[in-house]
Amino acid sequence: MSKPTHTPPRPPGAEFLPKIITVWREGYHWADLRADAMAGLSVAIVALPLSMAIAIASGLGPERGLFTAIVGGFIVSALGGSRYQIGGPAGAFIVGVSACVAQIGVPGLMVATFLSGFILMAAGGLKLGAYVKFLPYPVTIGFTSGIAVIIFTSQLKELLGLKLAGAEPPKVLDKLGALWAARDTLSGQAVAVAVVTIAALQIIKKLRPHWPNLLMAVVGVSLGVWALHLPIDLVGDRFGTLPRFLPAPVWPDLSWAMIQRSLPFALQFSLLGAITGLLSAQVADGLSGNHHRPAIELFAEGAANIAVSFFGGIYATGAVARTVTNHSAGAKGPVAGMLHAVFVLGFMVALAPLVSFVPMAVFAGLLSVVAWNMAGKAQFWMLLRTSRSDALIVVATFLLVVLRDLTEGIVVGFALAGLVFLQRMSHSAVIDTGDEADRPDCVVVRLSGPYFFGAAAQTGAVLDQIAEHPRHFVLDLTALDYVDSSGARALDLLALRTQRKGGQMVLLGVRPAQRRILEKAGLAPPLVRYIETLGALDSPD
Questions:
Q1: CA distance 457 to 493
Q2: Structure confidence by residue, pLDDT tens digits, 60-91
Q3: Of 58, 230, 235, 502, which has the fewest beta carbons less than 10 angstroms from its beta carbon?
Q4: Can you give the pTM of this predicted structure?
Q5: What whole-number distance in Å separates Cα of residue 222 and Cα of residue 193?
C-alpha cells in the first residue's frame, strides 16, 4: 500500500516573498536573462504608444504615461508576487484620473496617488488581496464594459476632429451633447487618419499577430500625415516637446487641506487598482499555471504608486494586455518587467522629440481599439441570457459606471450580487420530516444546509407548525453546515414557543462549534436538551 503524500506547509511569511527571489532561488541563468530581455523589449514596444495614449486621454501630457511605465513598471516587477505581471498606466484609470485632474489639479492627483500607495500597502499587509477573487463576475464585466464606453466617448472629440467652444464636459451625456453641438466643426481629415489607424491596427494584428501593431500603426500613420502635410492637431501642438529623461523627484503637497480633497480619489484608485492589478495577475496565472501572491502584489503596487507620485506619473497597476504580451514573448520571470521599464526609458531618451509629430487622431484611434477590446461584448451578452439576476447586476453596474460614478457602480453591483446570493442561499436550508420516531409525543425534523438569517426567515413558519403539539420536538442538526447568530436566535424563539406549549426542544448531533453559538443565543438546558443519538431521548441527562 502506497503511503499518502502530503503537501509541505508553506513557510511563515511566504505570501510576502517577491517572486523575483523565488525565481532566483530556482536558478537564474544567462539564457533566462536573454529570454527576459527579448520579452521586455517586446512589452516596451507595446507599452510606449499605449502609455502615452492613456496619459493623453486622462487630460495630461504623454510624458506622464512614460514616467508611470518606467518607475511604476520597474517597482511592480521588482517587488511583486507575479512572475509575469507588467505594471504601468491602465485604461481603466482614464476615467478616475481625468476626473481627479479636473477637480483638484495635477498636484491633487499626485497626493491621491501617494495616499493610495499607502492604502494598498496596508491592504497587502492585511492580506486583503485574497478577497478580490470574490468579486462577482457580472460586476467585473459591468464595470469593465462601462469603462470601455467612457474611454471611447472620451476620444470622440479627437476621432472626429471637433472644436468645442469651451471645456469638454466630464459626464458622458453632457459630453455627447457638447460634441453634437460642435458637429459643424467635424474634420474629415482627422476622421480619415483615425480610421486608417484603426484599420492598420487590425490588419497587422490579423496578418502578422507577432508584429508590434501598436507601434507600427502609430509610426506609419504619423509618417503619412507628415508626408501629406495634413492640417490636423499634433501632440506637439497640444503638449509641446516631450522631456528626454525622468524629472527630479518632488514631494507631493501633503497639506491637510489637499489630503482631505484627495482622499476620496485615493480610495477610488485603491479599490480599482487592487481589482485590476490582481485580475491581471490571475490572467497571467491562467496562462502559465503559476500562482501569484496577492499580499506582496498589492504591497508592490502600493510602493510603485508612492514612487510614481514623486516623479509626476499618473497611476500604476497591473496591465492585462502588456502582461499577456510578456508571457507570450517567452518571459522567464520578473526581470522581464524590470527590463521593459529600462527599455521604455531608452526609447524616451532617443525618441522623445519625435512624439510631438504624432497626430492626436492616431492616439484616439489606438484608444478606440483598446476600448473595443476591453468591452467584454461576448461576456456581457452571455450574462444577459444566463439569468435575470445576472442581467440585472451587469446592467445596473454598467449604467452606474457610465452615467454616475465608477466606485458607485462597483459598490451597488456588489450589493446587488450579495442580495441575490442571500436570496439563493436562503432556499438552500432543507427541512426533512420523513424521519419519524415510533411514539406519538415526539417528532423528529432534520435540518440541513446553512441556517443563517435569510434561511431562518424562509423556514421559520414551517418549523413553527411542526413544533405545535409534540412533547418532544427533536431537531436533528447532524447535517447542518453553518448557523449564525440570527439562525440561533430563531431557534431560541422556537424553543421558547415549544416550552410554553408544554414541550421541549431536543437538539440532536450538534457539533461543538455550533453548540457554542447556540448556547450564547440562549439555547441551554433546561430550555433545550442536547443528545448525541436518538436512542438517548429517554435516558436521564
A1: 12
A2: 999 999 999 999 999 999 999 999 999 999 88
A3: 502
A4: 0.77
A5: 9
